[in-house]
Design brief:
mainly alpha; 6 strands; Hypothetical protein af1432; single chain; binds fe (ii) ion; 182 residues; two-stranded antiparallel ribbon; 7 helices
Length: 182
């Protein structure tokens, strides 16, 4: 399978700087995340995600870190060269929609949350951070096929798959903690 690399976008240049990543354990993956996106993780807007439950007992902030770690792990297992910085930043920002989708909101109903939150997350992320084309694609397409248009780069596919795996694991872990029979 071949992947199109977005090299340029209208409002600036963007180059995918791809290398094979080797992170043998959780600590080294976490260190790589901190080295590439430490300032994101300590930003007020990302920290605000801690207030929003996502899957079961897991909040949006922790979920985003899990997805970044899982994406790195998948890239390593598949021996893919990746733009690690863009992948990490895109993964950390992919769910920056900043509301609790479990709470009914008559003014802005969240009924179609699954379909529309990627666009909302992208809008919020672009307001607070300078994003390159890869990062935008990761955020915009992470719910494919719900978002209809497929990702155009391997980093987006990795985050899309990692997001699904993490969601299942988080729900399962939360159900286990609650004692729900599986
Ligand atoms: Fe999402
Ligand atoms: Fe997610």
């Amino acid at each position: 399978m071949s992947f199109k690399v977005p090299v340029k976008e209208k409002n600036g240049t963007m180059k995918a700087n791809r290398k094979r990543v080797i992170c043998q354990d959780h600590e080294s993956r976490h260190a790589l995340i901190m080295a590439n996106a430490g300032s994101l993780l300590t930003s007020a807007v990302l920290l605000a995600e801690k207030a929003f439950p996502h899957h079961g007992a897991v909040n949006c902030y922790d979920h985003s870190i899990f997805v970044a770690e899982k994406s790195l792990l998948l890239a390593q297992k598949l021996r893919l060269k990746i733009d690690a910085r863009s992948l990490i930043r895109g993964a950390l920002l992919h769910d920056l929609y900043l509301y609790d989708w479990h709470i009914p909101d008559p003014e802005h109903p969240h009924r179609l949350h699954g379909f529309f939150h990627p666009a909302r997350a992208l809008r919020n992320a672009a307001q607070h951070f300078e994003l390159n084309a890869l990062e935008k694609d990761i955020i915009r397409k992470h719910m494919f096929p719900l978002t209809i248009i497929p990702p155009v780069c391997r980093e987006s596919w990795l985050v899309c798959v990692a997001d699904t795996i993490c969601a299942v694991q988080e729900w399962a872990r939360s159900a286990h903690v609650r004692g729900v029979p599986r």
